[in-house]
Specification:
The chain is of the alpha/beta class. Helix content is 28%, strand content 24%. The protein has two domains: 157 residues, Lyase, Ornithine Decarboxylase, Chain A, domain 1; 253 residues, Alanine racemase (TIM Barrel, Alpha-Beta Barrel), CATH 3.20.20. Helix 2 packs parallel to helix 9 and helix 5 crosses helix 6. One of its GO terms (biological process) is lysine biosynthetic process via diaminopimelate.
Length: 432
């Protein structure tokens, strides 16, 4: 469910007409509904109720990479969520937004020594280690600082998530985690390292999953591993089950499993584990809470169907170009008419295409369109390609709204460049 509805002939975000935001801020612009974010957080938390397996209620650590906007993170922090981060920058963003350090989990395959030190000094809850060399590096950093790092190894269970290849993370040839068959030996070596508290296991097999069976298969393997590790004397107290549950992008397709369905599956899979569960939802919380608002520049005749050229582009919303992702495209002021068209942006790339041969609500020059389900992996991937201004973001709460990231002026973008001395002085100093 989201809070983007047609009222009085125009789409609103909660109580605010999108036309008002477009007129005031300009387009393209991302618009988030705080009510939708809050509702999805509560629904997911309710789906996990009853999953206190002996070490406390589950920790829901929002995947910051899906939407790192400070207002989004602060909204979720007020709902009691933690954060799953994959960089020092995301860690600092989460802390600045009010996420307690002990509710932060640091994932990712390429943590640097500087990032490890930052996280240790801030007192984060857990590091999810992706390799034995990473464990050795973290041990050295923790020992140097006189601190202890609570850690879990991310396990690669070699389970096909059944999702797009670029967002599948749990197969043997993916870069993530350590091999399942080598896990017991890896834990033994990590337990011998100073500065590490080997406390948990972690798994995450992919994103936008629409079938619970791969998750259940991965969790079954994790349950067996927990028992094997305890038999070897390891004090396993946490199990991070990752995220990845899909959201509905195309209303014509069957809906993904509900959070309640997911919670029931987890309940069955984790019987007897005696751990604190950790979850890393991202898209599930914020995906349907955002839209990308764009204005039609012009309609261009095509060989088979017209091109609807909008002022949003692949630099604003990369997912269709990167993943062949599908976004519902709606007219902000629908007339009831429809046509088949290609929807494209102005960037000088054939890949700057949002939809081909799409049956959409009819629009014309100057009309507003909304790319739905654009709250996750959207603004965070935006760039300034083609020297286009970085897309601004707006958050709505009831009848109030605020700019939560301004549009950076092109003049400021250009001013960020620096001339080398041989150009600024007019003399080429290379070679003397």
């Amino acid at each position: 469910m989201d809070h983007f509805e047609i009222k009085g002939g125009a789409m609103h975000a909660e109580g605010v007409p999108l036309t008002d935001i477009a007129d005031s801020v300009g387009t393209p612009v991302y618009v988030y509904s705080s009510a939708t974010i809050e509702r999805h957080a509560r629904v997911f938390r309710e789906a996990l109720s009853g999953l206190d397996l002996g070490h406390g209620e589950p920790l829901i650590a929002f995947a910051v990479k899906s939407n790192p906007n400070a207002a989004v993170l602060a909204t979720l922090a007020r709902e009691g969520l933690g954060a799953d981060v994959v960089s020092g920058g995301e860690l600092l963003r989460a802390l600045a937004a009010g996420v307690p350090a002990d509710k932060i989990v640091f994932s990712g395959v390429g943590k640097t020594e500087e990032e490890m030190a930052l996280a240790l000094e801030r007192g984060i809850g857990q590091f999810n280690l992706e390799s034995e060399p990473e464990a050795e590096t973290l041990s050295a950093v923790a020992t140097r600082l006189g601190l202890s790092a609570r850690v879990a190894f991310r396990i690669n269970p070699d389970v096909d998530a059944g999702t797009h290849a670029k967002i599948s993370t749990g197969k043997a040839d993916n870069k993530f985690g350590i091999a399942y068959d080598g896990a017991v030996a890896a834990y033994a070596r990590a337990a011998a390292l100073p500065g590490l508290d080997v406390a948990g296991v972690a798994v995450h097999i992919g994103s936008q999953l629409t079938d619970l069976n791969p998750l259940a298969a991965a969790f079954a393997r994790i349950g067996v591993l927990i028992a094997a590790l305890r038999a070897e004397g390891h004090d396993i107290r946490t199990a991070d089950l990752g995220g990845g549950l899909g959201v509905p992008y195309d209303p014509a397709l069957p809906a993904p499993p509900s959070p309640a369905d997911y919670g029931a599956m987890v309940q069955r899979a984790t019987q007897g584990w005696d751990v604190r569960l950790i979850f890393e939802p991202g898209r599930l919380i914020v995906g349907n809470a955002g839209v990308l608002l764009s204005r039609v520049i012009r309609i261009k005749p095509g060989a088979t169907h017209p091109f609807v050229i909008v002022d949003a582009a692949m630099n604003d919303l990369l997912r269709p170009s990167l993943y062949d992702a599908w976004h519902d495209i709606r007219a902000v002021t629908p007339t009831g008419e429809r046509f088949v068209a290609h929807v494209v942006g102005p960037v000088c790339e054939s890949g700057d295409t949002f939809a081909t041969n799409r049956d959409i609500e009819a629009v014309t020059d100057g009309d507003l369109v909304a790319f739905m389900t654009a709250g996750a992996y959207a603004a965070t991937m935006a760039s300034t390609y083609n020297s286009r201004a970085l897309t601004p973001e707006v958050m709505v709460s009831g009848s109030d709204w605020a700019i939560v990231r301004p549009r950076i002026a092109l003049e400021a973008l250009i001013a960020a460049d620096r001339m080398p001395p041989w150009l600024s002085s007019g003399t080429n100093t290379i070679g003397g």
